[in-house]
Specification:
This protein is an alpha+beta fold. It has a domain of 85 residues: Arc Repressor Mutant, subunit A (Orthogonal Bundle). The chain is built from 5 helices and 3 strands, in the order H-E-H-H-E-E-H-H. The protein has a 3-stranded antiparallel beta sheet. Strand 2 and strand 3 form a beta hairpin. The model has no long low-confidence stretch (mean pLDDT 82).
């Protein structure tokens, strides 16, 4: 009995595989099996990723049909989407929070800093009471 290493297929690899083709989820799954034997993706995971791509404003994708008759055609995906989708997936996957993967707008960071300062000041006042 040999243990095959599990292969995680990235969004970029999926995009390269399906770009310009009109495919069902079953066809995409077969293509993944051929290109990446030993991958760990289920058909449900593939479907979730495809629906995320359809909803994204950074991806141009056409979905036709419903249910098991649905077909997907990837026209274009921005490089930033391909990069960040894997970062976001890895951050959700790990149990421990990894702040190096977080992407905050400068206004959000400023708000968090002000909130932290307020909490510290309030804690200092409560200690004196």
């Amino acid at each position: 009995m040999t243990n095959k290493p599990e292969i995680r297929v990235t969004t970029k690899q999926i995009a390269e595989l399906i770009q310009g083709k009109n495919l069902s989820t079953a066809e995409i799954y077969r293509m993944l099996d051929e290109a990446y034997p030993g991958h760990t993706m289920s058909r449900g995971t593939i479907l979730c990723r495809l629906h995320a791509m359809v909803r994204s404003p950074s991806v141009e994708m056409i979905k036709t049909g419903q249910g098991n008759k649905a077909r997907f055609q990837l026209i274009h995906a921005s490089p930033r989407y391909l990069e960040l989708s894997d970062i976001n997936y890895r951050s959700k996957e790990s149990k421990k929070s990894d702040t190096t993967l977080w992407h905050f707008h400068p206004m959000e960071l400023r708000y968090c800093q002000l909130h932290k300062m307020f909490d510290q000041a309030l804690a200092g006042v409560q200690e004196r009471i």
